[in-house]
Amino acid sequence: VAQKSNDLIKPVVDKVMAAISAVAKEKGYHMILDASSDNIVGKSILYAPDADDVTIAVKTKLGITK
Description:
Elements: H1 2-27, E1 32-34, E2 44-47, H2 55-62
Antiparallel strand pairs: 1-2
């Protein structure tokens, strides 16, 4: 059931994410955050350029090699 649900929702999510990305590029936004999301770390990032991904640098700083 979960797989079928994922299969059905994926096209909708892909379309929404494409629209968010297009708006970000058109408006010159560097990032788009989900204001309705509030977790322990903060807001969810809906759009950010790949060049801004600092995952590898943070893992290195933490001594994580995988």
